[in-house]
Amino acid sequence: MSDPDKRIAAVEAYVAAFAASDADAVAALYAENAVVEDPIGSPTHHGREAIRAFYAESMKTGAKLTLEGPIRLAGDYAVFPFSVHLHYEGADKRIDVIDTFKFDENDLVTEMRAFWGQRNMHGF
Amino acid sequence: MSDPDKRIAAVEAYVAAFAASDADAVAALYAENAVVEDPIGSPTHHGREAIRAFYAESMKTGAKLTLEGPIRLAGDYAVFPFSVHLHYEGADKRIDVIDTFKFDENDLVTEMRAFWGQRNMHGF
Asked: What is the CATH number of the domain that holds A49?
């Protein structure tokens, strides 16, 4: 059975995993056959191992996440606004993002979509 | 051609239409065959006329919207966090929501999905 508390905990674990640069901890939040699209319109990553590799690469930028408002829980989804902070080419940068996590019945993420674009990138 | 400025303007017009309790102004943002799902998991509203009627009913609560962060623009989407403020059964109430607007090539909204649930309702 789905559990709203577990879905909130998954989002908090996602933020914490970036703080720890722990790609394995992020991958563990996903179902085996999950799909990640980050950002929307880019090639998707299929399966937990490809997803782990994608996050390991992202974390090389030192990216850290800050929640920027309450997590919205609706149907099978948790949706949340956040900012990404990273240091890249000698400067501090920020990206404003909203992610949608779709969960399966075991509260694992089956689909993640990250909404951000050029207008949401600051300091680049 | 799609225009990011028009998509931002559409979100701002959406907020302004609630401020003016103007369901026609909201409906005008939608394509003729648009679909609205608000909240996720509830029956959808198909077509501009059904959508207009849905918003006219919503506006009877006096609901006003406040943007709670930057609009994220990604691919065909504008996604934005906001709060809904309404006065209902003698009390002030707030709902925290994230909407996704998907646009067509004329920058009309073809699909709206509203992410909020019981955990996002305050004062009810």
From this structure: 3.10.450.50
